[in-house]
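Protocol step 4 of 6: structure prediction from sequence.
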Amino acid sequence: QGSYFIGKLQALARAHPAILKEVRGRGMLIGLEAVTEAGGIQLADKLFELDVLVAHTLNNPRVIRMEPPLNVERAILDEVLVRTEKALKAL
């Protein structure tokens, strides 16, 4: 599931290079790095509005953590991807 989710998030990053600089991770521990601190904060806020729970790293508001459970269903990941794309388009 991790490879699938990271791959789809990386495609979203390529489609929105003004907002997302990089998507990286291993398994279901995923980091989305925004181009700017303000962009990271805005993206996290928008994701929260869309009921996607994320968190910043402790020392860098540009990096947003996504940590879905290991047993998450593909349909839920797809819904998170839809909401993430909606958040990116809103910015």
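Step 5 (inspection) to follow. The mean pLDDT is 95.
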